[in-house]
Amino acid sequence: MKKKLVVIENGVEFKPLVKKEIDYTRNVNILSVSRLQEGKGQEDLIYALSLLPEELKFRCNITFLGEGENETKLKSLVNDLKLDSLVLFEGFSNPELYFPRSDLFIFTSRLDESFGLSVAEAMMNNVPVVSSDVGAIPSLLDDGKCGYLYSSGNVIELAKLIENFFSL
Fold this sequence. Notes:
By secondary structure, this protein is α/β, with parallel strands linked by helices. Helices cover 29% and strands 15% of the residues.
């Protein structure tokens, strides 16, 4: 007798969706939630921001939620690229407080993620998602339908996806 395996994904608390109108003619608030450690790829988002055309770059505000051993290194990179006025590190905080004021959620992991809980939470809060194509994330996003995927580590591809949000 064959036994069937069934995968039961992590759940997120269901909340009624509120239609969110985003005005891409103004500044875009980007949120990234993850532990600040090697392999989580936050530096990819910082580099992608630096690659945007000047007229778009200075209309982006990035908030990183999370703590970890890479925080000092990431802050130094932000400083070196002269992006201090555009990037904020808020430490460990409840993302639910940030979703309502976020226009775009970016998940940059390079690790084989078994489930992107923060990706699912962003989707549940009606925040558009851009994510690296690692682990189980592609099964969550269905590229182009529920969000957009880029090749993990490809900062040029990530920058182009961010730029595309200004032309929606």
